[in-house]
Please model this.
Amino acid sequence: GDSDGAGHVLGGIIDGAQDVDWFVYQGNDGICVVNPSGELSVDLPGARLCVFIECLQGDTEFGPCQAGASEDTSPDGLAGCCSTSSLDLDGFNCTGTTSEDLWVYMRVDQPGGPAGVCNSYTVTYHY
Model:
């Protein structure tokens, strides 16, 4: 749902540059303002959180990433942003509809991270 108070927390462990964890959820637009967001907490530096979005109806228009985040594209060609701390995706629109229902894909990775060094993380996220 689109209530800021209805977020969730997930966690995992990544090991080096080749280990990538993916999570997905469907964000449903009710009556509130929607803004898929996430905050990454890690044991060791070097990990990042990336968030990619896809509208359930209409085409996905995606604006610039917030300051401190970098634009990225998922392996399936979805637009998104990456950050080593927190992300808030406000600049998007689902064209041709008043609903902003989305598939939200979250990736935790560690570009350039050494293999054999486990890095525990948690992601706090909401829609």
In short: The mean pLDDT is 90. The CA atoms of residues 21 and 108 lie 5 Å apart. The chain has no helices and eleven strands.
